Amino acid sequence: MKPDAGSNVDQFALNAGTDASTDLPLELEDFFQLLADEQTRYILYLLTERGGTVPISELEDRFDDEQAAIRLHHEKLPRLADYRLVDFDHEAGAVTPTRRCDELRTVLESVREFDGDADDFVAQIQR
């Protein structure tokens, strides 16, 4: 959960070399909550594997359910942007992993090993 601006929360910052004064802290609990959500987890897998800007339309194609597409635009990508894991340009229709996301690559690769359908998801997007 996000700490309030004035709270004195012990911050386990996974901000990996970024300027903490401009980034929301990514506490361990927050990171696990992100990983617990399948759609969010798969987005992170794809972005760290590709390592560049991905058109949002490619993500929408994978999440063909209309409700999933709405959550992608209005919940998942904005939340990842709040934690400075992605740069989400709604107008350009693109999402790009940030340095913070890239620095979590090793952790995401380890988690992906346990995630049975993840390889199929990433392979479909890359076609």
TrEMBL record:
The UniProt entry, under InterPro entries, shows: DUF7344, WH-like_DNA-bd_sf, WH_DNA-bd_sf
Q: Output the Gene3D superfamilies linked to this UniProt entry.
A: Winged helix-like DNA-binding domain superfamily/Winged helix DNA-binding domain (1.10.10.10)
Domain DUF7344 spans what residues? 32-96
Note one Pfam family from the annotation. Answer: DUF7344
Coiled-coil ranges from the UniProt annotation: none
Give the highest taxon in the source lineage: Archaea
Q: Which SUPFAM superfamilies match?
A: Winged helix' DNA-binding domain
The name under which this protein is listed is: DUF7344 domain-containing protein
- In its UniProt entry, the species of origin is given as Natronolimnohabitans innermongolicus JCM 12255
